[in-house]
Amino acid sequence: MTSEDEREPIFERIRGHEARDVIDERQKFRWRHTTLLNDFHDLQDIHELDTPHATERTQQLETQGYVFEVERRLHHYLSGLYTLLQQQRTLQNGVGQSFGEDLQEVKNEYMRKESSRAVLGLRHYAQHENVLPLQARTSKLERSKSLVVMVDDLHREDDDRDFEQHFGHITKPYFDPSEWVIDNWPDVEQFFEDTIEVMEQQAEEEIDELAQLSEEVDELYEQLAEDYRELQEE
Q: Coiled-coil stretches, from where to where (predicted)?
């Protein structure tokens, strides 16, 4: 029969094991990514709606609430992306300093992308101004619609450096923010996967050790069940 003295040390080791924090934070990061993925699909769905060109298209779009709904979904996505980036920063500082440098490089790699700079610039603007200055743009030639922002409209007072950093590489006077989000999504996915990979590689020994301890606990529970059956039979 398994004694309590034999069981207690392994339970204590599991409760205080350093890999538990890594696994918990990794799971939170996965949940945040899943939520962002859902926000991305919501934005992608409305962006791909077949809304044909029509007379007075701007007025028709506004009447249908299309502009408002795109703005709402954009704002939701941009907020979620910022939260994902902030959560990765927490992983750098809160799970183990050994992660800090490598996770920062993962973030830096994402931030170097032109589409990342533009998308995060939109988030920065929306954070301060609440609403993106979307305008309906139609093309009679292509018989299509899109919602765009004029680059100059994103220029906030006293933010010349931030404006150049986020939008200085855009050559046209306007752009479709939803298209930039969609183009940027593969880089978001890479950022997420690289973050997970860094955590798993650097904490591999600790995670494996915790998994081994968990297996030993399962075996103990099986032994306890067997001990209980023996007692019932006496």
A: 196-234
